[in-house]
Amino acid sequence: MSRQTLATVLAPLLGLFILSVGNSFLSSLTTLRLDAAGASPTMIGIVSSAYFVGLTLGAMFHDRLIVRIGHIRAYASFASLGVVSILMQVLSADWMLWIFVRLIYGWTTVGVFLVIESWLLLAADQTVRGRFLALYMIAFYGAGALGQALLGTVSGMGEFAPFIAAAMLASLSVLPIVILPREMPMMDRVEALKPLQLFKMSPSGVIGCFGSGIAIAAVYTLFPLYLQTIGMPVDEIGMMMACVILGAMVLQYPVGRWSDKQDRRVVLITLAFACLLLCAVILLVPQNATTLMITLFLLGGGIFAIYPVAISFSADRASADSLVPMVQGMLLVNSLGSAISPISISAAMTEFGPAGLFWSLAVLNVLMVVLFLWRRGARPEATQVAPFAPATAMSPIGAEIRVTDEMIQGVLDHEISEAQASAKQA
């Protein structure tokens, strides 16, 4: 990768990293502060769900706004509104206010992702798209782990210091975007496949994306509540959350390479069953700090790997023309799972105590194992034509980065071979 090419993507990657550091500890901080204020787990779940509802709504409509006003002004607008929504959390711990501001913050955050990913898309060509995606994931997950690790330090500076720090980081993330301007890409409207079309194309893919959305949202929003409820201090909570995110970053690629050599449904079944066992270990086996960190590292790797493997499985059954709208549609399915997760699982925590989180995740993984086994028996294994591509939380435009030229070429080659086989039979 040339220096000129790297300079092209330096601004959006720096902006993503700076913003994501604050966004990472803010998600845990919101849960912890509401719990300290006496909010019930159900109420915390409702507030947490508002963020994911905002993400989903923004993913559906922000492309129109960015096309109208341009990328740099859009980024500045989203970041500015994000700063306001963060600082509004300082004004009051009223949960009604926090539902509103977390909805707005989710709405603005996905707008930031949309700007960054479309910027990368402009710079990406056939030779560097995969590396750009890798840099995106390193910036996103690296910032997430760093933000969680800093949670205890920032919280120790005062009651309102973490919110102020997150707002400062959101504001500072604008600087690389405006100081290092580049030609901005033209964006097309997002036309994702409808849920029924997705389910007909790949039931296992829809199940995996929806289930992973539920699990990932629960980890981000309710796991800090679980740790605080069992008496863990804020600095240790941050370190435990950092272990989860590091597991997601480190284990995703080897799991993906394995899925290229194995029936992907076997990989999905194995991942869901492994997550079930790890939940059982946390629930039934006494844990010290070291063993809990190892368990959470593995659990994070398992939970976060289900989504990209499900996407790769779906790509094996998609046509070349439908790859991008398929990934966009699966992202919205994943977002829907994320939106309902905190509300539903927090209700279990209210009913059964903090352990209700892991009982819920255990039940979720049992259901996924059963459904994956059912689909494997009902439909034969797909020919693997699309190599695994790592994936993390993205806006719908990010599907165009994730759908690599190797993936498209693999699907095209498969379509050609099938057409030739059909011609011979005729």
Protein traits:
single chain; 426 residues; mainly alpha; 17 helices; 81% helix
Radius of gyration: 21 Å
pLDDT < 50 runs, ≥5 residues: none
Based on CA inertia axes, which overall geometry fits?
globular
Structural class: mainly alpha
Q: Helix amount, in percent?
A: over 70%
Could you tell me the number of beta strands?
0
Q: Report mean pLDDT, rounded to a whole number.
A: 84
Task: Determine the N-to-C terminus distance.
Answer: 47 Å
The helix-strand sequence is HHHHHHHHHHHHHHHHH
Secondary structure tally, helices: 17
Major β-sheet profile = none
Q: Give the strand content.
A: under 5%
Explain the layout of strands and helices.
Layout: H1 3-36, H2 41-69, H3 71-91, H4 95-123, H5 129-149, H6 151-155, H7 161-172, H8 174-179, H9 195-201, H10 203-229, H11 234-261, H12 264-284, H13 289-316, H14 323-352, H15 356-378, H16 399-402, H17 405-425
Helix pairs in contact: 1-4, 1-5, 1-7, 1-10, 2-3, 2-4, 2-10, 2-14, 3-4, 3-7, 5-11, 9-10, 10-11, 10-13, 10-14, 10-15, 11-13, 12-13, 12-15, 13-14, 14-15
